[in-house]
Fold this sequence. Notes:
six-stranded parallel β-sheet, binds NADPH dihydro-nicotinamide-adenine-dinucleotide phosphate, Rossmann fold, Quinone Oxidoreductase, Chain A, domain 1
Amino acid sequence: METKFNTNERIPAKGYAVRSKDGKFEPFSFTRHPMGKNDIIIDILYAGICHSDIHSARSEWAKGIYPMVPGHEIAGKVIAVGNEVSKFKVGDYAGVGCMVNSCGECEACKRSQEQFCERGQCVFTYNNLDCFHNNEPTYGGYSNNIVLSEKFAIKVPKNAQIEKVAPLLCAGITTYSPLKFSDIKEGSVVGVAGFGGLGSMAVKYAVKMGAKVSVFARNDNKKQEALKMGVTHLYTSLENVKEKFDFIISTIPTKYDIVPYLKLLKYGGELAIVGLPPADVIPKVSVSELVYNGGRKVYGSIIGGIKETQEMLDFSIKHEIYPEIELIKSNEKEIDKAYENLTTGKAKFRYVIDMKK
Ligand code: NDP
Ligand code: ZN
């Protein structure tokens, strides 16, 4: 079972890449940096498809680094450990989210908010240059393995439903973190805008935390699923909404106006924004709207630190909170199809690539 790697040797890997912003996926062979003394190698079993993968692959936020192997929702099995690794042993399950390294020394890293690394050394799982490894590009989870510092790998207990774990590593933490930051609890009135991969996780966590939860969607195609998750209302228009909210989380990935959501907040209510539409349609808020709708708070949130990601994972497994997934085969056509469905309203919640096959 144990695979030995010479620590000086680069790790061969195979995956799926796009070569340009309008390119289709194709098989791609590459190598990863050698396993350092604090690194582990994970055999990837499952990889989730996040809408951020689409924004990145299509250069919707900024020009991408090609060839690009997306994927920052990774679940797999540890197949090799460096000499000084203490958190993992061969055979353990492990998860990887959006980050694979950071400086570890600045104030943000010390409080385990590595995504805000003050030295700008937070290395993202793909489409990024790894300053700890000669600035080579990082490649993500649509592949058969990954090598990274054990500090950035999340422990996944043996009893987890492993095929459903991958989306927790991004969709899970990105919604769990602001719900905790805004102190959602029994009786909180919560709204979730955008009911896809992230939105459905926000619903599940908020319901578990005891909140009364409503969803804002473009249509009621997924009303039955929403009701099953414990949602009390699914609104397809903001006009007739009578209730006022303590907290609204927006996971919307397309052009929209945030002001109507702001107006739905109670005095002192909070709007957390995690959806990040393409740069050319990014929502802008006028200062006068903020002033005239005063007494409400708006903030953005980006994933969550490693410590909180572990907390989210443990919470999810303990309470059996898993994403709604559709498993797809690991081939380029299936990935292309999933991207198309996610941008044409045909997708339900999360596609997960079965990387074992
Ligand atoms: P999905 O595509 O899975 O879900 C998005 C959902 O939003 C879909 O159900 C879509 O509905 C719905 N939607 C689109 N436009 C509107 C609208 N105007 N009003 C209401 N609902 C709408 O995407 P993800 O959940 O994977 O990602 C969502 C966003 O979050 C992306 O922009 C992504 O990049 C971002 N993100 C941010 C992170 C962070 O750290 N801040 C981390 C991860 C993701 P329909 O089916 O009708 O299209
Ligand atoms: Zn993501």
